[in-house]
Amino acid sequence: MSDKTSATGNDSVIMCEAGDCGQGDCEKCKEDITPEAKSMEDCMGKSMEMLANTFSASAKRWEMIVYPSLFAFILLAGYGFYLIYSLTQDAHQMAKNMQDISKNMVVISESMLVVSKNTDNQTAAMHGINASMNQMRQDMAMMNHSVSRPMNKMNSFMPW
After folding, report:
1. Which of 11, 16, 37, 96 gives 29 a disulfide partner, CB atoms 3.0 to 4.6 angstroms apart?
2. Contact (CB, 8 A) for 26 and 16
């Protein structure tokens, strides 16, 4: 429906548009606008204007909050991407180094077998040294026993 002026040009008449009722200039769709309808239109117009002004002011307030927040979000998202990228690079480097470490661990394991054999040889040598030391201890005890009695007798003759 659209507002059009009538033939006299003074009164506003609501006329139907083509397609509303199927006819272009339908007599039954024409209505005269009453003063009450005009005041209602003024009230609705003022209300819509106030709503538009309020919405515009609210939008400006939201712009002051949303745009800086959006900028901060984009900045933090970029930094987060950088951190994740760095983490993946570090994980890749660590995986590459783990291959080298595993190769070196095989070499160390083989070397430990040699060290274990050498330790067994040292243990056997220490058992031999222990047996020899035990024999020396027995010999010293025997010598102490055989020399100490005569020395006690000689000490009584010595002047010092």
Report:
1. 16
2. yes
| pTM for the whole structure | 0.36
Structure tokens at 105: 């661990």
The DSSP-derived string for 53-108 is HHHHHHHHHHHHHHHHHHHHHHHHHHHHHHHHHHHHHHHHHHHHHHHHHHHHHHHH
Q: Is residue 146 part of a domain?
A: yes
Domain assignment present for residue 85? The answer is: yes
Q: Are 11 and 33 in contact (CB under 8 A)?
A: yes
Q: Has residue 48 been placed in a domain?
A: yes
Tally of structural domains, the chain = 1
Three-class SS string for 42-67? HHHHHHHHHHHHHHHHHHHHHHHHHH
Residue whose structure tokens are 């927040």: 69
In a domain, 24, yes or no: no
Quick check: helix, strand or coil at residue 15? strand
pLDDT band at 15 (very low <50, low <70, confident <90, very high): very low
Q: Which residues make Cβ contacts (< 8 Å) with residue 13, sequence separation at least 6? A: 3, 4, 5, 6, 30, 31, 32, 33
